[in-house]
Design brief:
Blueprint: H1 2-8, E1 12-19, E2 22-27, E3 31-36, E4 50-56, E5 59-65, H2 66-69, E6 82-90, E7 93-101, E8 103-110, E9 130-136, E10 139-144, H3 152-164
Parallel strand pairs: 2-10, 5-7
Antiparallel strand pairs: 1-2, 1-8, 3-6, 4-5, 6-7, 9-10
Length: 166
């Protein structure tokens, strides 16, 4: 029985979440924390998708709204809106960033061979953000490469927000 458990958990583990009625996944190893929506302090002169910063146990964390980053229509935040705190590597330094999503779904195991590479999805979501897609039951999940969601310039901006804390 122990062997069966290992087989079902083989492959990388991902957290699935919903944005605009579509399911997305992020590799769980990049996630530091999941939290409910909280007050976000806006930062002047930043792109619209950078919602601002939060103070998480004394650390300033920049927050981006994935809906806006992917040029989807803004949706008012609700009780189900969540912030996923992810850890990214930028120039060999760890950077924390929060991403706002509509709803958290579940943790799923996805074997690498089940992730299908795709050349193009739609004009709103650039494929460089996308690691691939996977079919699970009767739904399709888009697997994001969260480290590629921000451009170099945006990363510098986010990293600058983290540095203000030090």
């Amino acid at each position: 029985m122990e062997t069966n458990k290992r087989k079902t958990l083989s492959g990388a583990r991902f957290l699935s979440f919903v944005l605009n009625d579509e399911e997305y996944c992020i590799e769980i190893l990049k996630i530091k924390e999941i939290m409910g929506m909280t007050n976000i302090t806006p930062i002047p002169q930043t792109p619209e998708f950078i919602k601002g910063v939060i103070n998480l146990r004394g650390q300033i964390i920049p927050i981006i709204d994935l809906r806006l980053k992917f040029q989807m229509r803004f949706k008012d935040y609700s009780k189900r809106t969540s912030i996923i705190i992810v850890e990214l590597l930028y120039e060999k330094e760890k950077t924390l960033m929060g991403i706002v999503v509509d709803t958290i779904k579940e943790v799923v195991g996805i074997p690498e061979e089940k992730i299908t590479k795709i050349p193009y999805i739609n004009a709103k979501i650039k494929t460089e953000y996308i690691r691939g897609m996977t079919e699970m039951g009767n739904s399709i999940k888009i697997v994001l490469d969260i480290s590629k969601v921000l451009t170099e310039e945006e990363f510098v901006m986010i990293n600058g927000v983290n540095k203000r804390d030090e």
